Amino acid sequence: MFKAKRLISIDDLDQEDVMELYQVTKKFKSINEQAIRKTSFLKDFTVANLFFEDSTRTRVSFELAEKRLSADSISFSTGTSSVKKGETLNDTVRNLVSMKIDLIVIRHNISGAAHFVSNHTGLPVINAGDGTNEHPTQALLDLFTLYDQGLENKDIRICLMGDILHSRVAGSSIKLWQKLGIQFEIYSPKTAQRNLSGARFMKTRNLAGFNILYNLRIQKERQNVELIPGEMEYQKYFGTKEQDLKPNQFIMHPGPINRGVELDSGSADSPNSLILEQVNTGVSLRMAVLYLLAQKKGPVEPLL
Ligand code: CP
């Protein structure tokens, strides 16, 4: 029985919840591979997608997930809303709630925004990325992608590379990996590190022992000061290059990629790259999260 009532953080899930979520994701993944992908599980259920910050993958995959579940959904972005006229986050969501929405998906540039909305609405809320805090569906879909390659927890050795300081993907992934006992180390410029309990930072680059090279984006939009001397230096000392790849190493990245910085094109597009597979999994994983959280509002057609 899925216990979580919202998905603001990986802390909202215990191990059993993660496993149940993955069983449901597997079922939706097989539905998504069929010719007819549309289902009616969330008929008469209304989802509001509130994107206060830019997004391609997360926004489109939530919208697709909702359509494939037959939910009614509305998508809201700051640029075309009354937020531009100065309306507060609280007023915006209270107005939406009064229009009888059932669940909120929110992306916001402020850490804690999803938590705030959850506390002020009492609705199931899914955090689609808040500031530098967490991006739980990304962490969950990434790990599912590895399981889908036939890997088990004991086989997975991840080197997480890049801008840890600003990465909400790192915030959620590290919690998830620690919850499930997955081995990982971090390789990052000293200026782009932050204190994450239990995380080990590698002093010198040695990637030979890892079968997953997980690259994070350098988040220029969140840097008040430059963290790295230059993009060419970053690619040389911290980036992943096709010529250095071992045959058994998978490449992952949450996107969007700074091509030629975190990854050269050879590695981003190599047969070892799981990047587009991560995006593909995102739709099924988000269908599963929506399906399980919708049950907190009322009965939903069983998924056999
Ligand atoms: N991975 C991710 O969150 O990408 P978007 O910003 O395009 O949604």
Essential attributes:
Rossmann fold, 2 domains, 4-stranded parallel beta sheet, 304 residues, 9 helices
Would you kindly provide a written description of the structure presented here, covering whatever features stand out?
The chain is of the alpha/beta class and 304 residues long. The chain has two domains: 10-135 and 279-294, 3-Layer(aba) Sandwich (Rossmann fold); 150-273, Aspartate/ornithine carbamoyltransferase (Rossmann fold), CATH 3.40.50.1370. 35% of the residues lie in helices and 13% in strands. The chain has helices spanning 15-32, 57-68, 89-98, 113-121, 136-148, 168-180, 231-237, 265-268, 275-294; strands at residues 46-51, 72-77, 103-108, 125-130, 157-161, 183-187, 212-215, 250-252. The strands form two sheets. The protein has a four-stranded parallel β-sheet, with helices on both faces. Strands 6-5-7-8 form a four-stranded parallel β-sheet, covered by helices on one side. β3 (103-108), α4 and β4 (125-130) form a beta-alpha-beta unit. α5 packs across α6. Bound molecules: phosphoric acid mono(formamide)ester. Phosphoric acid mono(formamide)ester is lined by residues 55-59, 129, 135, 138, 254-256.
Q: Which percent range fits the helix content?
A: 25-40%
Order of helices and strands: HEHEHEHEHEHEEHEHH
User: Could you tell me the mean pLDDT?
Assistant: 94
Task: Tell me, briefly, the overall form.
Answer: globular
**Highest-level CATH class of the largest domain:** Alpha Beta
Strand order of the largest sheet: 2-1-3-4
Name given to the CATH homologous superfamily of the largest domain: Aspartate/ornithine carbamoyltransferase
Given helix and strand content, the structural type is: alpha/beta
User: In this structure, how is the largest beta sheet organized?
Assistant: 4 strands, parallel
